[in-house]
């Protein structure tokens, strides 16, 4: 009996280590082009002696500080994740200028925790497959509402309708992360209208 309990305990530890390793790998696959493009933007602002240089550096430093040191727990405050999104979107506004129009709304009926970087992965996907691959003015719509223990996330962005619409590696990795941390506690729907790519995530929060 004791040996069986030890075996079960060890198996549980192995599964936990596997989850941690897989989550770490998923985190490392966030879009590296964002950092490269942001540094280029800061360099351009500095050359112009723009007043935006210091605030831009500050937002980037907040993002890096959060990614490196503040989101290593399995679950983090939802409020922190929303602040991360705001900083990310502000930097993208600087990058794309007037070409980018963002409508975003957040609300929560009480404090919640959530697995880190889930929402950032979804928003990054909007830029990678929407903004960067379309021309002209781009309208993005982001809604995040947390109430009664559930989070509802909706993202809409334009896409190149002449090419095939497929689930990229970012969304596939996101599904893996959701399967690990929210088994049977989430719904992820991906679709399209005539003009927009639409992602909807429903998540049972803690």
Description:
It is built from 6 helices and 7 strands. A hairpin with a 3-residue loop joins strand 6 and strand 7 (196-204). It has helices spanning 2-27, 33-47, 53-70, 78-96, 118-129, 169-181, and strands spanning 76-77, 100-108, 113-114, 138-147, 150-158, 186-192, 196-204. By secondary structure, the protein is of the alpha+beta class. The strands form 2 sheets. The chain has a 5-stranded mixed sheet with strand order 2-4-5-7-6, with helices on one face. It has a two-stranded antiparallel ribbon with strand order 1-3. The model has no long low-confidence stretch (mean pLDDT 85). The protein is globular, with a radius of gyration of 19 Å. Helix 2 (33-47) runs antiparallel to helix 3 (53-70), helix 3 packs antiparallel against helix 4 and helix 5 packs antiparallel against helix 6 (169-181). It is 50% helix and 23% strand.
N-to-C span: 35 Å
Rg, Å, rounded: 19 Å
Helical fraction: 40-55%
Sequence of strands across the biggest β-sheet: 2-4-5-7-6
SSE-based structural type: alpha+beta
Q: Give unreliable regions as ranges.
A: none
Number of helices: 6
The overall strand count is: 7
Strand content: 15-25%
Topology:
Elements: H1 2-27, H2 33-47, H3 53-70, E1 76-77, H4 78-96, E2 100-108, E3 113-114, H5 118-129, E4 138-147, E5 150-158, H6 169-181, E6 186-192, E7 196-204
Parallel strand pairs: 2-4
Antiparallel strand pairs: 1-3, 4-5, 5-7, 6-7
Helix pairs in contact: 1-6, 2-3, 3-4, 5-6
List keywords for this structure.
single chain; 206 residues; alpha+beta; five-stranded mixed sheet; two-stranded antiparallel ribbon; globular
């Amino acid at each position: 009996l004791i040996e069986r309990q030890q075996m079960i305990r060890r198996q549980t530890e192995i599964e936990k280590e596997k989850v941690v390793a897989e989550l770490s790998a998923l985190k490392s696959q966030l879009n590296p082009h964002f950092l490269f493009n942001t540094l280029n933007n800061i360099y351009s602002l500095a050359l112009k002696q723009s007043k935006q240089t210091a605030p831009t550096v500050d937002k980037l430093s907040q993002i890096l500080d959060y990614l490196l040191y503040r989101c290593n727990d399995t679950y983090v405050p939802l409020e922190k994740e929303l602040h991360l999104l705001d900083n990310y979107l502000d930097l993208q506004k600087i990058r794309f200028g007037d070409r980018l129009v963002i409508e975003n709304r957040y609300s929560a009926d009480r404090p919640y925790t959530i697995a880190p970087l889930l929402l950032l992965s979804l928003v990054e996907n909007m830029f990678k497959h929407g903004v960067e691959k379309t021309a002209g003015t781009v309208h993005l719509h982001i809604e995040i509402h947390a109430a009664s223990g559930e989070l509802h996330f909706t993202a809409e962005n334009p896409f190149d309708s002449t090419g095939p619409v497929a689930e990229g590696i970012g969304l596939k990795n996101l599904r893996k992360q959701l399967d690990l941390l929210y088994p049977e506690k989430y719904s992820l729907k991906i679709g399209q209208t005539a003009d927009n790519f639409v992602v909807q995530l429903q998540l049972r929060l803690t």
